[in-house]
Hints:
The chain is an alpha/beta fold. Helices cover 36% and strands 19% of the residues. The chain has helices spanning 3-17, 22-25, 39-46, 91-101, 116-119, 122-127, 136-143, 227-240, 257-279, 284-289, 294-300, 307-317; strands at 53-58, 61-65, 71-74, 80-83, 106-110, 131-135, 146-148, 153-155, 166-168, 172-176, 179-185, 195-199, 204-206, 246-248. Strand 4 (80-83), helix 4 and strand 5 form a beta-alpha-beta unit. Helix 8 packs antiparallel against helix 9. 51% of the residues are buried. The structure holds zinc ion. Zinc ion binds next to loops.
Amino acid sequence: xxxxxxxxxxxxRFIVSAGLTAAAFGLAPSYLRAAPQTLxxxxxxxxxxxxxxxxxxxxxxxxxxxxxGNIGVLTGADGKLIIDSGYSGSQKQIADALTSVSSDxxxxxxxxxxxxxxxxxxxxxxxxxxxIIAHENxxxxxxxxxxxxxxxxTFPPAPTGxxxxxxxxxxxxxxxxxxxxxxxxxxPAHTDGDISIYFAEADVLHTGDTWWNGYFPFIDxxxxxxxxxxxxxxEANLAMVTDKTxxxxxxxxxxxxxxxxxxxxxxxTIHDQVSALKKQGKSxxxxxxxxxxxxxxxxxxxxxxxxxxxxxxxxxxxxxNN
Length: 322
Ligand SMILES: [Zn+2]
């Protein structure tokens, strides 16, 4: 193998690996050069050394950032309500962070969707006292063997204790800790089981993975996600917020309407370019070669999904009618 072939191979390996990478999973970039394990295994392994950054937001709502998807916490006399459970390898750090927020016992856990970086901690949180609430399709994917092609990984069914026991398919309102929580399923977007949670009095919204603040989002076509749904979800999120709303994204820093708007615009711009080219009959390789995400790659492509991979995710979902 000559140097050029070698570099082509490593570049390709880099791009494949970049399907899931550094920032979103809190991994050092050197991880990209190691590669014996699958991305999912590596991400899970990172949980053991994850550092949790706890942010107090408003009205007894906090966020724990650093192990998989961002975790939301509501404290009070009814016990803690937690949104998403991170990696199981971070149990100690997450438990310590939860204790530092308040001494209330863990009582409720809501999963924004089924992905491992949001649900691997379900089993221990359930053992600690949480009743698990999620979309019906989240329970379905966690209950059965589920493959995600873009991660090249097949997930076995989750243990019984990790499964949601209360499921929803339509809007639902919960009243816990003197707070009103609006749970709202999206149309299929990042997966087919995404829900948002809005804390009405605190005016805090958790979007799950329908929003990645500062990163191109992953779209899981294997379990029902698609680019059109991602754009509709971004619009739905914008419709739910004002300039004062604090928004917890699935990945990336806490933000608000301004950052949500920027994200929506990036998705729409790249979607429109890719869609126009696909309608002209351009192949995936031809569209990728035009680099429709190039203008955003430096800022948005540093995490889990780079510009090329995002272009492929968009191409997959656009058709004659969109
Ligand atoms: Zn996800």
